[in-house]
Amino acid sequence: MKILILYFSGTGNTCFIAEKIRDELCRGNYDVQLSAVETFPPAKVDKFDVLILGYPVYACDMPLFLQDYVNELTLPRTQKAILFSTMGFYSANAFRKIGRRLIRKGMVPLHFAEVKMPGSDGLVFMGKESRYVMKVRSTNFNEAAMIKKAVAEIAGVVANLGGANGKRAEAKLPPVKWSGWIMGGLMSLIYKLVEKKMKRKFRADEQCIKCRLCERICPSRNIAVQEEVIFADRCFLCMRCINQCPTEAIQIGAKTQGKFRWKGPDGNYSPAKR
Predict the structure, then answer these.
(1) Do residues 237 and 64 make contact, with C-beta atoms less than 8 angstroms apart?
(2) What is the pLDDT of residues 10-69, one digit of tens each?
(3) pTM of the model
(4) For residues 90 and 191, what is the distance between their CA atoms, to the nearest angstrom?
């Protein structure tokens, strides 16, 4: 059984969990490949028996970048899928919405795991010594119960697939959260309004050394480094550029100057090396 763990991670949360899942499955001697969506062609996804797909929740859905990726998939055979997501606040009916999207692409979603993580979109506005930031920095995410639970659940689903003896898998969707339709719609509207306002405020200040890292790692190819750093209008607020800038030169207006930068749960997330 060939397993593909495919993920999108703006600031490292989802990548951290994807690596934990890979390590757990490798201990079970499964044939596992781990890849970020930016480096894995959609045409090759169907070469695997099981897809484990991870992503952060934006506006109660997967990021637009990943939605476009899923839309490009062409699967000649039914493929089993396991989903996991990271979120900072509330996901509403995101899993159900995404599960139905995958079913239309020929997949069979079998399990959904959700992990609450520090919201990287809010951390960049917080002081480096603020109470919440200090709490986040002191957390040992390697021992986080919610992460361990999600990893164990996914490993269990994979183990059951291995012992299914050819039995046809049936799609499983989470139950509808009726309050989620209202909250999800409201949060989606708020997110779009905030996104429209915030992405206009991205800039690089005088600390910029023109290293072009932001240009290379931007998943939407929204950044161009010329005489000045130019931010276009394709940003979907993954916050990768502002958190990865080596001189903390990228700002959102004036409110992120000197504030905290999140490098993932282990402090070492580097999308440029993946």
Answers:
(1) no
(2) 999 999 999 999 999 999 999 999 999 999 999 999 999 999 999 998 877 888 888 889
(3) 0.90
(4) 12
Q: Say if residues 76 and 46 touch (Cβ distance below 8 Å).
A: yes
Q: In one letter, which amino acid is 105?
A: K
Tokens 């990768």 sit on residue: 240
In sequence order, which ranges of 91-203 are alpha helices (DSSP H)?
94-104, 120-123, 131-138, 145-162, 178-198
Cβ neighbors of 124 (< 8 A, separation 6 or more) are: 239, 242, 243, 252, 256, 259, 260, 261, 262
Which single residue is written with the structure tokens 């997110």? 191
Tokens of 69: 């990726």
**Residue range 201-261 in CATH 3.30.70.20:** yes
Architecture of domain 2-178: 3-Layer(aba) Sandwich (3.40)
**Residues 118, 148 contacting (CB under 8 angstroms):** no
Q: Which residues of 55-66 are buried (b: 16+ CB within 10 A; e: fewer)?
A: bbbbbbbbbbbb
Beta bridge partners of 81: 51, 109
Residue 113 β-bridge partners: 84
CATH 3.30.70.20 positions along the chain are 201-261
Every domain range in the chain assigned CATH 3.40.50.360: 2-178
What's the count of helices (H) and strands (E) in the chain, helices before strands?
A: 9, 9
pLDDT digits 0-9 by tens, 130-180: 999 999 999 999 999 999 999 999 999 999 986 655 556 777 777 777 666
* Residue type for position 7: Y
CA distance 127 to 76: 50
